[in-house]
Each structure stands twice: as structure tokens, then as C-alpha cells.
Amino acid sequence: MLIVKSRIKTKDAAKGGVIEYSLLSDYDVYLFKQGRHYRIYEKLGSHPTQVDGVEGTYFGVWAPNADNVSVIGDFNGWQPGSHTLIARSDESGIWEGFIPQVTNGSLYKYHIASRYNGYQVDKADPFAFRMETPPKTASVVWQLDFRWSDDDWMKARRNRQLLKSPISIYEVHLGSWRRNPEEGNRWLSYRETAKHLGEYLGNLGFTHSEFMPVMEHPFYGSWGYQITGYFAATSRYGSPQDLMFLIEAMHKKGIGVFLDWVPSHFPTDEHGLVYFDGTYLFEYGDPRKRHNPDWNSYVFDYGRHEVKSFLISNALFWLDKYHADGLRMDGVASMLYLDYSRKSGQWAPNQFGGRENLEAVEFIRSLNEAVYKAYPDVQMIAEESTAWPMVSRPTFVGGLGFGMKWNMGWMHDTLYYFTREPVHRKYHHGQLLFSLLYAFTENFILSLSHDETVYGKGSLLSKMPGDDWQKFANLRLLLGYMYGHPGKKLLFMGGEFGQWAEWNHDKSLDWHLLEYTPHQAVQRWVRDLNHLYAKEPALHELDFDPKGFEWIVTEDWEGSVISFLRRGDTTDDILLVACNFTPVSRVNYRMGVPREGVWTEVLNSDAEKYGGSGQVNPKQVKAEKIPSHGRFCSLSITIPPLGVTFLKSKGDQ
Asked: How far is CA 311 from the centre of its chain?
């Protein structure tokens, strides 16, 4: 800690004024200006401390084009000029100082008078650890002290998050997972959610949960994807410590927590980052790069070093202070392309004439290198919707450096296929096969996310064709096919029990549906899929390696049947997955297998306990020396209507 000479004596400070005081060393400033200060949140923002025995708070803010910056708050009647910060003399653009008797819980903003155009504005603190509950917009002085007791999880999480580990993710929007109907349909607090979520997911066999953004956002209907408080957990559900308690509770139940994170854009709310000091500071100055037309928001200036320090520090902040187990980075494609959602004439090519945002590429690589250096046991996950190469490959081979990437292509192709009537599916057979042409080019997560259950798209169950029985059968088939397919798994809340209604962020999930047998059966199916996926190394160890997959039946487009094998790295056991995408049972269906002996049916979506018609195979099926599909032996099995069956061959038989 560096303390410089006070311009106001401590004994006079109780009457008002700012003591000249700094948490920043010259080296801190150097790193910040170089874009390489990855803990800048420890230096800027508001930090309760003592100076000469006097309690108060240090404030530091980056506003290089300000003519004057003062702290306004509930401690000075929100009067600009009462507590004016001091500009550092090193041309860093940082204003700072210590204000006595401002303590934990005080409300404040920065009143910024720009040196340009007479612009004056009240801004929330970009580095605030807490903000008022929207629609209020003030920052809150807050300490993040918390006594963690999740050491067992933190020590073991590396092995739970390896690329060869089973990773099954439950995507959650905290404001609408459960609500309290007895109190005006209010959402649950972080601590109330902690009582239920970890146990629920543990019982269903999920390994991780992914929280849609928990960073403070002014508009609830943005679901957290329009952030104004990047370092502040949303106060809608409680305090920062309450969110820490929730994450700790998840860890104690053996559930990891990924957080959605949005460095791709920010909203135009006046109290936020936009036009911060009367200039385009956090956002691009060039209007061809500044505005994101899809979300009517502003794009960060990835070429500005101080912005890089801000964003990379923010990523590390959630991993450090909140023990998050990884970040899922939203909207990566919008960062990578200069022409993203822009028409001709609305964007400018890079220095080489291309459409790639080279500054964003360099930022992403620096980000992932910094994260994995500090926390090698976490996962960085990209939501990247294009064919950009090597998203989930290391930077030293030219990749972007993410650990995994959402497989958006698989999601769109698969859901398009499943929404076709079974009689027409034979004409779309290639969509089931296409994903395996690129399945191992990235470390893919198969995602059935919230994006596919909103804006009139309907829930997963309601998308399915046919009568109610066929809809449930199709949903079980979809989920079974996903768990058999190479790649980690992600399912949005409600899909695990067959929510009928499209997701509504203003309502709870329809938990009352679990009073009915078909929905109980779907939930049971998801539970057993998760347990099988975690139990069988053949289903997860080589999710990202072509050695773990082998086609058997691809050519039966007329019958809409496919089958394939899954293999592991540490076992000789083999899993056979056979899918029938029509409501016609395929009895005595012969398919080649690589091994003689007994094959045991370990899971069948048509079992009566899952709501099926009971067309299952004998517990054990013996492979015969009858050549088929290029193999010297084969099985004859029943593939149930709109169903999937898993059969296992043990390697030691």
C-alpha cells in the first residue's frame, strides 16, 4: 500500500474533504496502462480502510478526460463538489482519494465534469462490488469478506473439470427457477436457492450448473446480458456474500458453478460505462465499431489497454472472489467479426483488408492465457456461433485458448430435425450425420440452452411433433441421443421434466407438472442418463477424440435409424447406442458389432418407468457370428419406437 502526503490533515477531515491517498503504486499504473493489470479491482473502486487511525473509504476511478471528479452520496447529500477527488500527476487519468467516515454500506456515485462540451453526469462506479437494487442505480461501498468452507471441492475440482471428465451442465436463470407464490410470486434469494438447487441437481446427477449472468443489470428482461455493474453481484437476490454462500452450497453438494460473462457489449444506460467521462472511453470511438445493432448496445474497445485490464481483471475477479469454476463467454462471434450484423458500408476492414477484429482476437487470447495461468483448474467456455477455427485450442498453436465451445450447429440441426414429422425425417437424415464431420474439431458442449425456449420457439417438449405420447417419446429420444453423442452436455432448466410452456423470466418453472406421471418419467430418464454418462468412461473420456466414436448404421435413411459405438480411454468396455426416429418399432434389427459375447442393455427410453411402451430387449443379448455392416459378428435387437437403447459390452468377458 502506498500512502502519499495528505493535502488535508486527518484531524480536519471529519469536517469534510478528501485526503490525498493512494492504493496504486507506480508499477500498478504501468501495468494498468499496458493492459496487463489483472487485479486492478484491488486498486480502483471503493475500499474501506484506515488512514492515520481514521475509518473511511478510498475511492479510485479512471476518467482521463474529466476536468473534475467528485464523490457524491448519502454521506454528503449527493452534492457535487463536497468531496472532490485528486487527479494523479502521472497522466494515468486516475482520480483518487480517501474520504473519512464513509463506511461499508454507504451509497455513492461519481459526479464527472468533462473537459469537453460542458458535459456533466453522475456515474456508478465501474469497479463497485455492490450496487443498489434496480431500478435504483447507486453504487454501494462494500467489503467482500467471506469465510469459505469449500476446500474439499476446490482441491478436487481439477479432476472434475478435465476434458476427459463427465461434465453435464444445468443452465439456470436464478430469478425464474423457483418463486414463492405465497409472497406475490417473488423470486428466491441466493440463500433460499442454496437450500434447494444443489440437492436437486445432485439427485439428478448433473455435475455443474451454469448461472445466466448474475452481474448487476438494470433491465431484468435482459436476463443479465446487459450489464452495468461488472464487479457487482445483482442485489435482486441478496448481498455478494449471499451469492458466495450459494456457490459454496453448490460445491458442498459436489456441483460446480459456471457463470455467464458478457465482455462483448454493454448497455447505454446513462449511469453505466457509456460515454463515461464525456468521451467514448470504454467503447470504441469509431461508430463503425462502437454500436452492436442486435442488442442496441456498445462494444468495448478491445484495443485500449486500460479496457483490457478492466475486462481481464473482471474475469479473474469472479474466479477469485466468488470461487466460480469457469466462465461461459457470451457473444464471442460478435467480438470476432467487424461486420457482425452490419451491412455493407457500416463497417471498415482491418489493416489487412479482412473482416476479423484483430484487437478482439488478441484480447481473447490474452484473457484466456491470464485465466488459465492463474486458475489452471477452471474452464473457459465460448458461445461462438460461426466456424472460426481453433476456438478451443491453445494460443500457442494459433487457437483462441478456450477450454470448450458450445456446439451451436449441432443444436440447430438437431432441433430442426426433431421438429419434423417422423414421416418426413428420412429426407433430413443427413442432419443427424453431419455433426460427426466436425465433432472433433473443437472441444464441444452439446447445448440445449435457453435461447431455444424463448421468443415463440416453444419449450423442448412443445416443439416435438405428434400426440402427447409421441411428444414425450421424442423428448426422451432427443435427450438420449444427446447423451450418447460425443461432447459434454448442457440442458436449460425445465427441459429435465418436460416443461410444456415456453420459458417466461417473470414466472417460476411449472413445478406442479411433476405431480403427473409423464413428467416424472422424463425427470427419471434425465437422472438415469446423467448417472450412466458419469459411470461409463466410454461415454465421456473421449468426448473430444475421434478414437472414442465409431459409426455402425448410417445408411438406413428410409427407416430413420442410426447407431454408433462409444469407447473410453481407460476401459475396454464399449457402449452401443441405437436410435429409431420413427414411431414404428424396429424388431429383430441386425447391426454389426466389433466383439462377440454378451451385450447388456443398460438403458432404454421405451421402458415403462420412463413412460414408454415397454419394448425393451432381453437383459442380455449375445452377438452372433453373422457378418453385418463390415463386421464379422452382429446383434439382433429391438429398437423401440421413437426410442434409443444403450447396450454395453464388457472388455473383460
From this structure: 16
The answer to whether the CB of 557 falls within 8 A of the CB of 544 is no
Q: What is the pLDDT of residues 183-221, one digit of tens each?
A: 878 999 999 999 999 999 999 999 999 999 999 999 999
330 is catalytic: yes
Q: Pick the closest to residue 8 from 85, 118, 81, 75 (CA basis).
A: 85
CB atoms within 10 A of CB 376: 8
DSSP 86-115: EE-TTSS-EEEEEEET--TT-EEEEEEEES
The predicted-structure confidence for 86-135, as pLDDT tens digits, reads as follows 999 999 999 999 999 999 999 999 999 999 989 999 999 999 999 999 99
CA angle 108, 110, 116 (to 5 degrees): 165
Nearest to 225 by CA among 450, 494, 452, 492: 450
Domains in the chain, please, with CATH? Answer: 10-123 (2.60.40.10), 166-539 (3.20.20.80), 547-649 (2.60.40.1180)
**What's the CA dihedral at 253, 254, 260, 263 to 10 degrees?**
120
DSSP single-letter state for residue 18? -
Stated length of the chain = 653
Selecting among 330, 384, 413, 536, the annotated active-site residue is 330
Q: List the one residue out of 267, 171, 163, 157 whose CA is nearest residue 215.
A: 267
Q: Which among 571, 593, 575 is positioned nearest to 486, based on CA atoms? A: 575
Asked if 383 is an active-site residue, the reply is: yes
- Could you tell me which of 110, 111, 109, 112 has the C-alpha nearest to residue 139? 109
Distance CA 133, CA 216 (A): 9
Per the CB < 8 A criterion, the answer to whether 94 and 29 are in contact is: yes
3-state SS assignment for residue 269: coil
Residue 295 main-chain phi, psi, to 5 deg: -115, 5
Angle at 86 between CA 82 and CA 90, to 5 degrees: 170
The grid coordinates listed for 87 are 487527479
pLDDT, residue 15, reads 35
For residues 556 and 634, the answer to whether their CB atoms sit within 8 Å is: no
Question: Which three cell numbers mark 70?
Answer: 467528485
Distance CA 593, CA 553 (A): 10
Q: Which of 96, 277, 306, 383 is catalytic?
A: 383
Nearest C-alpha neighbor of 436 from the set 579, 574, 551, 552: 551
The span from the CA of 367 to the CA of 264, in Å, is: 13
